[in-house]
Design goal:
By secondary structure, the chain is α+β, with helices and mostly antiparallel strands. Helix content is 29%, strand content 34%. It is built from eight helices and eight strands; from the N terminus they run E-E-H-H-E-E-E-H-H-E-E-E-H-H-H-H. InterPro entries: Chorismate_lyase_/UTRA_dom_sf.
Length: 211
């Protein structure tokens, strides 16, 4: 069931069959539609930085169009105070020259694309859930699509530690040992290289990083 985001003259409703253990703030993050970075920045009261891991483009032999789309498979890490708060893998389909220039040449990130164009994307939450990992951490994930004319994305996001939504700044300001374990090095370079090789070798959407 896709999320239903509806409104009338004086009402707004977001309807979805959420997992039973998902908290209110987690529902807000899971239903973000192109503004996750802004919501995370507001939640943590700190800057969110996008760290590109890989990006693999289809050949650009002519300007993007519906007849000649350009695609990109990519992975980025969203970081806050040097800690990784989200891993996003996505497949992007571009069918307009303007979106091609902004995204591939000027390097606007996905969320910033919609703000730059000035359009609210169509959003569909396809699936979401949580898992407990061997190290005792609990991760949260979702798969969703965002689209506007000339630009479509299919995105899988993994939030590596649900404690971030409970402890907030205290989670960011953990001990040095915690930072080393859960920070920038949480996703080893070898794993990123392996996912990049898989993205080059396959037309399928890359698998999300393990948290």
């Amino acid at each position: 069931m896709a999320v239903i985001d509806s409104f009338k003259t004086n009402t707004t409703s977001v309807a979805y069959t959420w997992p039973v253990d998902v908290s209110g703030i987690e529902r807000i993050m899971l239903s973000a539609h192109g503004d996750l970075q802004r919501l995370l920045s507001a939640f943590f009261a700190r800057t969110i930085t996008i760290n590109p891991i890989y990006a693999h483009n289809s050949p650009r032999t002519q300007l993007a169009s519906p007849e000649h789309p350009v695609t990109q498979r990519r992975e980025v890490h969203l970081q806050c105070s040097r800690k990784m708060v989200c891993v996003a893998t996505s497949t992007v389909t571009i069918t307009s020259p303007l979106c091609e220039r902004l995204f591939l040449d000027e390097k606007f990130a996905i969320g910033q694309m919609f703000r730059r164009i000035g359009k609210v994307p169509e959003f569909a939450l396809l699936a979401c859930g949580s898992e407990e990992l061997e190290d005792g951490k609990r991760k949260l994930w979702r798969r969703y699509t965002l689209s506007m004319e000339g630009f479509e994305t299919d995105i899988t996001e993994v939030f590596p530690d649900r404690d971030m939504f409970v402890r907030c700044e205290a989670w960011l300001d953990g001990s040095d040992a915690e930072k080393e374990k859960a920070g920038v090095e949480e996703c080893p370079a070898d794993e990123a290289k392996q996912r990049y090789a898989q993205a080059q070798a396959s037309d399928a959407t890359p698998l999300p990083a393990s948290a």
